[in-house]
């Protein structure tokens, strides 16, 4: 244990609410035993009761994601409102977004119970009808999958975090930079989740008919003019030893969901060269394609590329869906 972590633990032991929140989150994120995770949850509960908004928001995240058991959106939103009542800025923004996706500023008030009561979580979890673009491989489009305000939220969360995207490399856990992929990206770990992101994952899980634990870490991709991701596959290759080990632990990558976070650019379609087709959605639309065929085998027809924008920048939410449970 580092000296900083020891100091944080000591402060938490004295009842410092801020320290309890941060140390509780640390215990949960680094939890190796059930006892450690339970201690982290207890510290978060104590911190929230003491008026710490960060702790209340993280409890909301645990409830919405199912980390604390079965998903419980109503209790999660209650905790989010509690965090907002303590002026925790991320909770304030999310609560307004959930209450009025079309116009978050419609709730420009501090009666957070009233804002929370205006949230229709069942409506937010509903997904639009799908359109079939191709049967082999299976490619579907969901128009207006995500409200524009949610798209803007994710862009602003990702903007300061994106860096040069890398390609999987069995010799380096960070992956490697290559001219085959010149765009930028970022993903979101447990400590970087929020309820907006969990809602998006829940909607993707619903359209794929899988539990939320089948989601890999969500990514946001960014393409500036000329940047691209050349033709590649998303499935895991059962002939490569490193990917075999990954599949045995977490299952195959069944499908890919791409949500267009903006549309004020030219070009930058998702191209399927073996099909001779390319697709793009309007802002908030989702493109979903299976990476395996109907027999459950990797489908070579799913070769695809992220074409470069010719004008403007492209923001894309990318979600891979596994056949087995993934760690949060």
Mean pLDDT: 94
Shape: globular
**Sheet with most strands: strand arrangement:** 1-2-13-9-16-7-6-3
User: By CATH's scheme, which homologous superfamily of the largest domain applies?
Assistant: q2cbj1_9rhob like domain
CATH architecture of the largest domain: Sandwich
Rg from Cα? 21 Å
Order of helices and strands: HHHHHHHHEEHEEEEHEEHEEEEEEEE
Largest sheet: 8 strands, antiparallel
Q: How much helix is in the residues? A: 25-40%
* CATH C-level name of the largest domain: Mainly Beta
Output the structural class.
alpha+beta
Tell me the total number of β-strands.
16
Q: Which fold name fills CATH's third level, the topology of the largest domain?
A: Jelly Rolls
Number of structural domains: 2
The first-to-last residue Cα distance is: 23 Å
Strand content: 15-25%
Q: Helix tally?
A: 11
Q: Return residue spans where pLDDT drops below 50 for at least 5 consecutive residues.
A: none
Protein name: Fe2OG dioxygenase domain-containing protein
InterPro entries: Oxoglu/Fe-dep_dioxygenase_dom (IPR005123), P4HA-like (IPR045054), Pro_4_hyd_alph (IPR006620), Pro_4_hyd_alph_FE2OG_OXY (IPR044862), TPR-like_helical_dom_sf (IPR011990)
Domain Fe2OG dioxygenase: 211-323
Cofactor: L-ascorbate
